[in-house]
Amino acid sequence: MIGDGAFWSLTVLLGIGTFLIRFSFLGFLGDRELPDWLLLHLRYVPVAVFPALITPLILWPEATGGQLDPARLIAAAAAFAVGCRINVIGAILAGMATLYLMQYLLG
Amino acid sequence: MTAQRSAFLAGFRACAPFSLIIVPFSTLFGVVARDAGLDVLQVMAMAAIVIAGASQFTAIALLQDNAPVFIALLAALAVNLRMALYSAALQPHLGRARIGTRMLMSYLMIDQSYAVAARHFDMTPAMSLDEKVAYYMGCAMLCCPLWYGGCLAGALIGQRIPASLSLDFAIPICFISLIAPLMRTLPHIVAALVAVTAAILLSSLPGSFSLLISAIAAMIAGAQSELWLRRRARTVSE
Q1: Among residues A64, A92, B23, B97, which one has the fewest Cβ atoms lying within 10 Å of its Cβ?
Q2: In chain B, what residues touch A11 (CB-CB under 8 Å)?
Q3: Burial environment of residue A104 by CB neighbours within 10 A (0 to 12, 13 to 18, 19 or more)
Q4: pTM (predicted TM-score)
């Protein structure tokens, strides 16, 4: 469960922070240029944050009490393979379909 | 029909194909957020206040995992930092609009509307400021209502989906789908591998610290591999 206090403080702060990021150059930074080292690191934010975030969710899912679950591992691999070759929505569908198939096959 | 009106409609039409991405993604957010225990009002408040899908998923995943609010905030903001680049790219085109208009355009800035508008502005430099604003608004007026609508639809049907459908796993699957297409260059692959390895090695730390350290290590690894590749390319060419 997610507590009300945590939810609302996070939502409001995230809303303000995200607005300031979007407004930055359009609003107050004008045509200033970002330093190269920052641009370099910004490129790797998605591939750094998302894998670190989901690795524990995939290996030790709460729904199985933190136990390694072969069905989920295979589903994750299927989503990754389809995502590399086709597209985002295809990968989501392939991942969830594989999960259901594996849960059915593996009982 | 005025030039502004036709620019608005052109932007609206150019973004139409993205409904195929926005509708399922937002619906999934509504369903997953309800599954995590939010009520319909909370789902819609988050969709309207934040209006940035990947960071909303990040925030929900971390809150559900009982991470401290500031860690969830940091991770979700990091995910949205890319929008500073969008803001910088749009500035030469839209930076002279009125302040209120710029605030509205900032609020409505999402991946799809940015990508379509920035590409169009670069290809059609003759557009006036008013036409560019109208085109951008056309993009946003297609994408953003679909985002709210999808979240609402997902939130309303969410509770009727049985637990046996394992929707908890929709969050990792979503993120895998977002990063898989990025695995096109060596530095991106290195960064992802470092992130996964560090997250496993540090898993005994409280979840939020392992995320923070792993993500920073992975970003540095990606950046350093890119610099290394550049240096190598230079020595080879000399």
Answers
A1: A64
A2: 42, 45-46, 49-50, 59
A3: exposed
A4: 0.81
